[in-house]
Amino acid sequence: MINQQQAAAPVLAVSQLNVQYGAFQAVKDVSFEVHAGEIFGLLGPNGAGKTSTLSAIEGLLHPASGSITVAGFDIREQPLHARANMGVQLQATSFQPELTISEIIRLFASIYGVNLKDAAVKQKLAEINLEEASGKKISQLSGGQQQRVSLVISTIHNPQLVLLDEPTTGLDPQSRRQLWERMEHFRNNGHAVLLTTHSMEEAEAVCDRIAIIDHGRIIAIDTPEALIAQHRDDPAVLSVVRKGKVTLEDVFIGLTGTAVRS
Amino acid sequence: MAALLRADFTTLWRNRRSFGLVLLVSLVILVSWKGLVDKLGGVFVLSSCITIGLTSIGLMGYSNSIARDRDRGVFQRLRVGPVSAWTIMMSRLIVQIAMIVLMTVLVFVVGYFVDHIYISPVGYIAGLLMAMLGGFVYLGMGQAIVGLIKNPDTVNSTTRLVYFIFIMIGMFGEFGVLGKKIGLLVIWSPYGVVRKVLAASLDPASWNMDTTWALLAAAGYTIVFVVLGVKWFKWENK
User: Fold this and answer.
1) Residue B218 is inside which H or E element, if any?
2) Residue B24 is assigned to a structural domain of this protein
3) Number of domains in chain B
């Protein structure tokens, strides 16, 4: 559980972030905060700058300018401390295919300084209904099972910030609902969750606040309900409404356009 | 580091068929050269086989495993944790050094019992240490290749090609069958300098100024390959 003092300050603070690839500026002056006990969604079309923003937060790329702090630690000045306070679920479950599930869990637990005995590993697997899979390789699991393992590993050290990069892509409705419940469980336990997703249904269902990013800039940031209310009468939004009632997806397409991005 | 090492050694063990083949190359050559020991000398045979083994480990083993895991995103998954890039790479290198030690000891054992090559205890110890140092030339070269080329299949085919060129030109060049110019080139190539230094280490009494120059050349090759390899290396394939 996160204490009250930690809950007051933002767990993640991104300020004036700029990411440049040669002459191309992928992220432009992006600023937002994610607080403890909050699920924050970062939405955007392909190539909008979501992954670049996430990579900068994870410390995988050096931004051209701006600052990122995780639990008070600057990701550039104290990257290991910042990463120790975040749990990351990448888009692809990229674990060593030669290792068994329990070996992978033990490896990442050790990396995060968590000493897990065999019984604790079994307990972790039982929590995600995979107690029988401890000796299996990751490739022997279904997509949903892999995502569950990945989520367990991301949160094995009880991090203040959980980054989930399109975690429900390719999952069936049951697995997706189960993952939503896990996210809500993190939030209710005081964790901050940053979620990227292409599913507006998901964003509307689980996110407390969302930011819509397009062409590297945040173009809207608020609660899903407030965003819908603000743009209910926007002609661009009204022109894409499909079933009479304005949804978050209508707002998203109204703000980012109907053109398919590469 | 301990957790990473455990995982990397477990991965190596699970891939034991492929690393067994890497070790097998130098042993097969060692056994097949049994009849040449009297003509070429035991030290030449041992140093050639160890050099071939080092080339196999650095080019075939190390670079391919790095290219494969980079392509799978294994490094990116590790890098989002509180572990430095150097720790990840150091763990990988320690596994390769263990492979080098194993390969060198196997060459010594097979050389002793099958080829009846006897050298002094000091020669064995010096040879083992120099094999580890010589290994860095090829690990550096593997790093440079995997830094320059991103696609794991291209890395695989490139390392096989370089390996083949090294063995064929290296061995035949040293035998003098490719002419004087090629022979001289081979002597001062990464293959030649490592073999020369290894040979002198196995027989310390034969160490001379040429060996010292070869050692410096090997160090120079290592520095150049490692600097280029680190400079060019990208942790992801995008």
Assistant:
1) helix B209-232
2) yes
3) 1
